[in-house]
Specification:
Distance between the termini: 35 Å
Order of helices and strands: HHHEEEEEEEEHHEHHEEEEHHHEH
Helix content: 25-40%
Number of domains: 3
Strand order of the largest sheet: 3-7-8-6-5-4
Number of helices: 11
Mean pLDDT: 89
Length: 354
């Protein structure tokens, strides 16, 4: 908060860029836990090993000397470093953030983006570490406008450490816009978490049945109605997982005549097809002709893996009436269009936004 107040003062006073830069650099050091720890260590012991900020991507000017044969250069002092920077606007899912006492850390592994958000950027939202227990029920997105610095992270792959380039938002140049309904979304997510605990007995009973055989959502809803459970608790929550994406489930639910829960997937009965959906990143949507005998279909379906269906092992794809699969990519409309095409449905009959 002190930095943001000082930054406003700089604008009112017309302070030179050099002074503003020094204060901004100080803030960015203190705002990064890794750099702050390094700074504190150097204050206590000037022989402590320093950390190069953000991994060192960019241009650097150093002072030093050549070796006698001029085959090597020895740097004695860093004079200036200008990191690679880019201005971007990104949309981040609130449920992908890690909540800490004084900040939330948002990671997007697909785009390799990291953003740290302190409380002054989201006034009125008082989070704490307990939010991590139920954050996967959040649906809201926050819009981030920031200056990103090129950084590096080492990841283990094929037995060796590989350097991957990431973009880390500068704390001093990060702006966040929250959607209007974020408060209601937070209350809904907290309520679902509480309701699942309050009605754990019936939820566990439903989960046990779903693991053995498909169960219609209306059956589970009737159990909730008998117990006068809050309407915020839905049948799909029984088998919902933290990394499931609501969009794919909701689009298919609007299309179908009836839907069922079975293990980790949802089965949607459409007029001409049956859709097997695991709304999870990296998974595909599987489509079958609508079975005449649902019991026989599920008996076979429950004994095979998706790989068996793709490869048609023991002619299982033919026996199940497998039509094809739609792989999810970055564009949701393309996924939806592919599903509708396989099912013979009309695109305008369902909300296709996103």
């Amino acid at each position: 908060m002190a930095w943001r107040v000082r930054n406003v003062e700089f604008g009112l006073r017309g302070v030179l860029d050099a002074e503003r830069t020094r204060v901004e650099r100080a803030f960015n050091i203190l705002a990064s836990p890794e750099l702050r720890f390094c700074y504190d260590s150097l204050r206590r012991d000037d022989q402590a090993p320093p950390v190069f900020p953000f991994g060192g991507f960019g241009a650097i000017r150093v002072e030093g000397r050549f070796s006698d044969d001029r085959s090597a250069f020895f740097a004695d002092r860093i004079l200036k470093h200008r990191p690679e920077m880019v201005q971007r606007k990104v949309s981040l899912l609130l449920r992908s953030c890690e909540f800490e006492a004084d900040r939330m850390i948002c990671l997007d592994p697909r785009r390799r983006i990291e953003v740290w958000i302190d409380r002054s950027l989201l006034p009125g939202i008082a989070w704490d570490a307990t939010w991590n227990q139920w954050r996967h029920w959040l649906r809201s997105r926050i819009e981030v406008d920031a200056t990103f610095v090129s950084s590096g992270k080492y990841v283990l792959g094929n037995g060796e450490w590989v350097l991957r380039k990431w973009l880390v938002a500068l704390p001093s140049r990060t702006r966040v816009v929250a959607p209007d309904g974020i408060g209601a979304d937070i209350e809904r997510a907290r309520a679902i978490h509480s309701l699942l605990g309050e009605h754990a007995v019936v939820v566990e009973r439903a989960r046990a049945l779903v693991e053995k055989a498909p169960v219609e959502h209306s059956t589970i809803q009737s159990w909730f109605d008998e117990l006068h459970v809050s309407p915020q608790l839905k049948p799909q929550h029984v088998s919902w997982r933290a990394d499931y994406e609501p969009y794919y489930f909701e689009q298919l639910r609007r299309l179908c005549q009836k839907w069922l829960l079975f293990r980790d997937e949802y089965l949607f009965l459409l007029p001409r097809a049956l859709v097997s959906e695991v709304p999870q990143a990296g998974r595909a949507t599987y489509l079958f002709t609508r079975p005449d005998d649902m019991t026989r279909f599920m008996t076979l379906h429950g004994t095979v893996r998706r790989e068996d269906i793709r490869r048609n092992r023991d002619d299982v794809a033919s026996r199940l009436g497998f039509i094809g699969r739609v792989v999810r990519g970055h564009h949701r409309k393309r996924w939806l269009a592919g599903v509708l095409r396989y099912c013979g449905e009309v695109a305008h009959c369902v909300e296709a936004s996103g």
